[in-house]
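Mods, move this if it's the wrong board.
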Amino acid sequence: MENNKIIGGVSVMGFIAPNSIYDTYPVIDPLYGIDGLRNVNTIDDMLLIPDERRRSGMIVGVNGGSKFFKLKNIEWTGELTDWDEIQILLVKNNKPEIISIDKEKPNGIIDGINKKFTLDFYPIHNSEHLFLNGVLQENGELLDYIIDGKLIIFNEAPFKNMRLLCSYRTN
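Not the wrong board. Structure tokens:
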């Protein structure tokens, strides 16, 4: 074997391809090939990341970065319960970037019984405008609903087939 001394070089006895298109799980831990920031199209794609490529605390962006999830420090089941949804703060010119969400359909069943609905993001305090069948609802314990983080709790459950939309600002 030749004794070539190249400054900053490393002797390798095989093929190395750090930019390989065949590694679909980019990593920040090259020793083990796991972890890092990963972006996928759907939550189902996120759930398919193999255990060998997972490490507690890794972050995965879903649907073009519209949602982000952090892997919990638990024994994984392969379900969404393995992950915590997290909020990423966008900063522009050293200030949090304000994003307007318009006409989001909150998550929850409208069946005349359910009173709880969840927004995709945390609204800035008092920025939300909640509409039930096109009528603006009033926020307050003795009024139509209260909001706690991303959770909307109605005083009276919306009737089946009603339409619920929320516009708000988030950062």
